[in-house]
Amino acid sequence: MSLVDVILTRRSIRVYEKRKVPESVLNKILEAGRQAPSASNRQPWHFIVVTDDELKEKLSQGRWNKFIKDSAFTIIGCGYVGSPYGRKWSTIDTTIALQNMVIAAWALGVGSCWIGDFKEEEVKRLFEIPDDWKVVALVSFGYPAEKVGSRWKKPLTEIVSYNKF
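Now predict its structure.
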């Protein structure tokens, strides 16, 4: 599958098979994040890979996050905010790295779901994340348990203009 096909077919996956993702596949996903661009190449990110079932259960306490407990692993993406640069750019840079991981995972047959609805202070406490780091997002990963179809998207004519808004 071409990279464009990977991007065009990727969907959020919330139902996972009960099997582990091999370490070699996980490392390719993490490497895709590590290779992401960042402003001034500062790489202001840190990723916590959560594989422990008890910890995944605790992360799944949110109203919309029940599926985390069934994921093979969940990545907590953190951005460094302990400097003026970090406060301005680390969320964007960390998001780019996480998106690289999401796309790489799909290319490797692993589904994922981006999670933006979480209690940051609870996550920081549970995973001992320092104060000068922000939890940007959680992303759950695992092999899809069911086939996913296409999803409606706005046409380009609604979201793109040239030379002016």
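The longest helix spans residues 84-107.
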